[in-house]
Amino acid sequence: MIKAIGTAYKRDDFTTKDFFAYWLDVHAPISAKAPGLRGYVVSEVIRKLQGELETEAFVEQWFDDEAAFEQAGASPEVAAAWEDVPRYAKATGTFWLVKEHVIIPPPGRSPTRLTR
After folding, report:
1. What is the pLDDT of residue 109?
2. pLDDT of the residue at 106
3. DSSP string, 24-39
4. Residue 27 and residue 40: Cα distance in Å, rounded?
5. What is the reported pLDDT for 2?
6. How many Cα neighbours within 13 Å face the side chain of 87?
7. What's the CA gap between 93 and 101, in Å, rounded?
8. Residue 111 has what pLDDT?
9. Which of 2, 32, 90, 111 has a CA between 20 and 30 Å from the CA of residue 24?
10. Domains defined along the chain, listed by start
11. Nearest Cα to 112, choosing from 32, 55, 10?
12. Residues in the chain with pLDDT < 70?
């Protein structure tokens, strides 16, 4: 499994509440259509504990492998998701492609917003 993880920043004219409402209710269903997408998590930053990086949120998306990630990135579904981003967020996020090394698995969870 490969995960894309990135930072997200609200537009200056959005409140935090409006930013997450748009993301979760409008943008997430668009993003969730990416072919090969195996998981999608939006994490709201409650407060920074230390370090230099500032962000309102993190996004995580899982794919089977780098080829599946690249294939999704070339799809019209992902193009539509990127086209929607400026409607609620700044396009200045930083993104990484990572491989997880799970030490203690997080508690089991089920989808709370979308059913695919």
Report:
1. 72
2. 83
3. IIIIHHHHTT-TT--E
4. 12
5. 96
6. 13
7. 24
8. 65
9. 2
10. 2-98 (3.30.70.100)
11. 32
12. 110-116
* Own/partner long-range contacts of 96-103 (Cβ < 8 Å, ≥24 apart): 96/4, 96/5, 96/6, 97/2, 97/3, 97/4, 97/66, 97/69, 98/2, 98/3, 98/4, 98/5, 99/1, 99/2, 99/3, 100/1, 100/3
Contacts of 97 (CB under 8 A, 6+ apart): 2, 3, 4, 66, 69
* E strand segments, the chain: 2-8, 39-44, 57-63, 95-98
Measured between alpha carbons, how far is 81 from 89 in angstroms, rounded to an integer? 12
Residue among 66, 43, 69 at smallest CA distance from 55: 43
Which residue carries 């690249």 as its tokens? 70
